[in-house]
Amino acid sequence: MSLLEQLQAKFGDNITGHNLEAVDPWIEVAPVGIVDVCQFLKTAPDLQFDMLSCISGVDYWMADEKKMAKAGWEPHTEVVYHLSSTVKKHTLVLKVMLPRWKDDVEGQLPEVASVTSVWRTADWHEREVFDLSGVRFVGHPYLRRILCPEDWVGFPLRRDYEMPLEYHGIRGR
Amino acid sequence: MATIDDQRIIEFDVRTDEMLVNMGPQHPSTHGVLRLVLRTDGEIVSEVEPHIGYLHRCAEKIGENLTPRQFIPYTDRMDYLAGMNMNLGWALVVEKLLEHDLPEKAKHLRVIIAELNRLASHLVGMGAYGLDLGTFSPFLYAFRERERILDLFEEACGARLTYSYLTPGGATADLPHGWTQKLSAFLDQFEPLIQEYHALLTTNAIFVKRTANIGVMSAEMAIDYGCTGPVLRGSGVDHDLRRDGEERYTDMYDGYAFEVIVERDGHYPNDHNYPAVPREAVLGDCWHRFYVRMLEVVQSVDILRQAIERYSTASGDWGQPIKLTQKLPKGEAYLETEAPRGQMGFYIVSDGSSIPWRVRARSSCFCNLSITNELCRNCLIADVPAIVGSLDIVMGEIDR
Questions:
Q1: B234-239: average pLDDT
Q2: pLDDT tens, position by position, B147-183
Q3: So where does this one cross the membrane (chain B) (predicted)?
């Protein structure tokens, strides 16, 4: 039984998609199911994904509607988890698809459950994604900006981000 | 055990107040700008909070506005002590997305350059660690040897710190004529000097006292925090991407004789020529992290000798850089390489144009630093530089 079938059998609807033909094959997980899936991937004896290599936020959006239609994707934000195992020496990519704004209200951050309870390293990684890509991790113990100052406005790696004109008297543009 | 009942004695003699102490941002013992906020009770540290972001140069954002080859100089500036290894990581992930394969000779060239930079980087790590603990000579010794490596790099690519030498498709140029002979001569001269470093630090009684059994990190803890590289191997985890990584990367080291530097049953591979583990040292402490680095220097020398041999005899081309505005296929790729400080990962997403849609760098020191609070709990203030120094962080990589 492949890993995908194993996950589908165990988590059913929480496994919402996959692409096994990609350069790095990935499996899509529902935002609510991510913690359970990760916990299983970490503890299952034949998987043992004990290391979380990276969490990245990717924003799919373009100001130009024509280009947007040509690109072939709906506006959304992806949170990508790269896992690896120091025991089994294998890797896995998980994805969570989120709306760009929660309930389509601009400024309301999309939400996904935090995996800090599974891997401690997720703490800083999630803070970074929150800081730069604007994704709220529900259940994170201390979610606040990590690279930008506390009072920074906006999320720099979002496609609709605009550089502030001024920050504490420092000219921005 | 005697107890104190008199309230006045407690007030004046025993009771200490909690205090917040700022260490940094510009502390001489950090490579870059790091601010640590310590919560102290007398000499004891109860909490450490690292504040990062002072060097944030928006590397990821810049990557979304440049073609992969134009982005190479920015990768140099991430881990500026191992620019070549950063170039390599980015080059490999772009090649992975393009499904571009390199000729044999180019792979050996990359092994030579990457290992030589690892050597230079570990030398700074070792020298600067001595500086953290208040000894100056190792720093001078290490820089003396590093200068010679930089001379070699300068001859190969014209730069001493920000090389931009390895690029997607191979390297910007072949190694100059007679370069490998100079490298061999350097290795012959350098190898006996490693004993000097061991005499200066590894077996030095003060050094052992300052590092053994300090900042002990268990294997589980290291993995949980995503620590990699010498920090992970110093805790006894047998994991090195040069052997265990993705095929595109391990392919470079295919056929090379080398062993992962990690403690097995109280012994390190090839450590018979070097001082044994002192009795005070505990697996996962600052001393072990330092020692792993020192043995990796020896291992790199060994790999370099093999690589020179293979490079000289390999047939074919040394590889050509890809076109500056090469179109990228639609898709995404992620690849991790074993940089001197740990696993450096690059993630590239493309929408089909020549400029990546998203560039992400996963840096090793970012994870290595996040464990500081856990390691420094209940240690002395003087141990904080010893612990942070043993992680061998470069802030340029953390803040990007």
A1: 91
A2: 999 999 999 999 999 999 999 988 898 899 999 999 9
A3: none
Could you tell me the residue range of the domain that residue B329 belongs to?
A: 19-399
Q: Which domain holds residue A34?
A: 3-171
CB contact under 8 A, B56 and A54: no
Q: Do B336 and A56 touch (CB under 8 A)?
A: no
- 8 Å CB contact of B358 and A22: no
Contact check, Cβ <8 Å, B331/A22: yes
Strand residues in B66-209 grouped as ranges (E): 166-167, 170-171
Q: Which residues of chain A are within 8 Å of residue B223 when distances are taken between CB atoms?
A: 50-51, 86
Contact of B33 with B395, CB cutoff 8 Å:
yes
- Put simply, the answer to whether A82 touches B334 (Cβ < 8 Å) is yes
Is B306 contained in some domain? Answer: yes
Closest CA to A51 of A125, A103, A160: A125
Q: Looking at the domain assignment, is residue B6 inside a domain?
A: no
- Give the tens place of pLDDT for each residue, A25-44: 999 999 988 999 999 999 98
Chain B residues whose beta carbon lies within 8 Å of the beta carbon of residue A115: none
- Residue A106: CATH number of its domain: 3.30.460.80
Counting the structural domains of chain B, the total is 1
How does DSSP classify residue A105? -
What is the chain B residue with the closest CA to A48? B223
Task: Give the integer Cα–Cα distance in Å for B93 and A23.
Answer: 11
Name every chain B residue with its beta carbon within 8 A of the beta carbon of A158: none
- Contacts B393 to A, Cβ<8 Å: none
Which strands form B379-380's sheet, in the order they lie side by side? B18-23, B35-41, B44-51, B379-380
Nearest to A147 among B53, B332, B334 (CB): B53
Q: Which ipTM score applies to this complex?
A: 0.92
Confidence (pTM): 0.91
Number of domains in chain A: 1
CB contact, 8 Å: A25 with chain B? no
Among A56, A71, A84, the residue with its CB nearest the CB of B347 is: A56
Axis crossing angle, helix B179-190 with helix B286-313, rounded to the nearest 10:
150
Q: What is the CATH number of the domain that holds B256?
A: 1.10.645.10
Rounded distance, CA B150 to CA B170, Å?
20
Does the residue B1 lie in any domain? no
